[in-house]
């Protein structure tokens, strides 16, 4: 189940590129988050019969929901704002630095947590992978003409938001057992992106293929994947799932290249492999916690 969730998540960038590139970031995200929201509420209310855990609103929940929506919005803007196949793949890879950022967030946010030697090595490996994949792509062909930094800024912002989201869930582990955030997170994303569409006054007519892409994205990486991941967490060790997550940077990059018919340079593939190695090490070497971690 965990592997199936990871495969589905790896397709998110592909769907967003196909749909968002044609319809625009805000319109496609509105459709996808709306479908994902309905799917999540159906799963929690009908399949898991746990709807009450999704509608409890308090300051902690609102903070997590905001971080959830920020990640979805900024990652979508990063993908749809990329110019060219190379930048698209690089920006996608930057976002999947989030597992390493989660380690940093855990150390900062969870009382008593601190780095281990293995985690430091994991961070260095992943960081070098990012530099290797993106170092030669930050500038265009002409000397002095800097490539637009906004897609990169959006990708980093989304990754940081998700890392903080994960770190806070780690801090509030006991409290979070009675709360589920994805349904309301997708609802907030839907409201935010829908508001942006209204402000812009733009909404393109959607064809059958456009709706198919939106439905597949909403039901797959935004719907079923979260359910499978939560079920896997109850049956599989977190460290094992963390190592499985190392597949995402490589698989997502390869799927993007396949759909875009883009032959990736060796440094991009090497960078993806190094980031995945960093994720594996970070999963095997979680931050040590001294004493009891606070839950508030």
Provide key terms for this protein.
disordered C terminus, 14 helices, about 75% helix, mainly alpha, two-stranded antiparallel sheet, about 300 residues, about 0% strand
Describe the structure in your own words:
It is a single chain. With 296 residues, the chain is an all-alpha fold. The chain is built from 14 helices and 2 strands; from the N terminus they run H-H-H-H-H-H-E-H-H-H-H-H-H-H-H-E. It has helices at 2-10, 12-23, 25-47, 59-80, 85-95, 98-109, 117-134, 150-171, 173-176, 182-200, 208-235, 238-244, 247-260, 266-284; strands spanning 113-114, 288-289. The longest helix is centred in the last third of the chain and has 28 residues, at 208-235. The two termini are 31 Å apart.
Strand content: under 5%
What is the H-and-E element order? HHHHHHEHHHHHHHHE
Supply the number of helical segments. Answer: 14
Lateral arrangement of strands in the main beta sheet: 1-2
The average pLDDT value, as a whole number, equals 79
The largest sheet, given as strand count, sense and whether it forms a barrel, is: 2 strands, antiparallel
Low-confidence stretches: 139-146, 289-296
Give the proportion of residues in helices.
Answer: over 70%
Net shape: globular
Question: What is the oligomeric state here?
Answer: single chain
Alpha carbon gyration radius: 19 Å
- The assigned structural class equals mainly alpha
Q: What is the rounded distance between the termini?
A: 31 Å
Compute the number of strand runs.
Answer: 2
């Amino acid at each position: 189940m965990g592997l199936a969730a990871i495969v589905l998540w790896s397709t998110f960038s592909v769907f967003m590129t196909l749909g968002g590139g044609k319809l625009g970031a805000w319109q496609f995200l509105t459709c996808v988050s709306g479908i994902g929201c309905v799917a999540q509420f159906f799963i929690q209310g009908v399949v898991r019969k746990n709807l009450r855990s999704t509608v409890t609103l308090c300051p902690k929940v609102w903070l997590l929901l905001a971080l959830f929506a920020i990640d979805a919005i900024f990652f979508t803007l990063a993908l749809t704002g990329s110019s060219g196949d190379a930048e698209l793949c690089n920006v996608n890879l930057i976002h999947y630095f989030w597992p390493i950022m989660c380690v940093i967030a855990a150390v900062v946010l969870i009382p008593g947590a601190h780095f281990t030697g293995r985690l430091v090595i994991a961070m260095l490996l992943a960081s070098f992978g990012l530099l290797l994949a993106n170092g030669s792509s930050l500038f265009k062909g002409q000397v002095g003409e800097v490539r637009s930094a906004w897609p990169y800024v959006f990708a980093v912002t989304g990754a940081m938001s998700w890392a903080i989201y994960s770190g806070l869930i780690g801090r509030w582990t006991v409290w979070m057992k009675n709360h589920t955030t994805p349904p309301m997170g997708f609802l907030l994303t839907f409201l935010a992106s829908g508001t942006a569409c209204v402000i812009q006054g733009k909404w393109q007519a959607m064809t059958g293929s456009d709706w198919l892409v939106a439905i597949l994205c909403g039901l797959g990486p935004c719907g079923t994947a979260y359910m499978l991941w939560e079920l896997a967490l109850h049956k599989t060790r977190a460290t094992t799932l963390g190592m499985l997550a190392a597949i995402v940077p490589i698989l997502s990059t390869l799927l993007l290249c396949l759909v875009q018919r883009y032959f990736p340079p060796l440094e991009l593939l090497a960078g993806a492999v190094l980031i995945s190695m960093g994720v594996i090490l970070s999963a095997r070497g979680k931050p040590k916690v001294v004493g009891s971690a606070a839950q508030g």
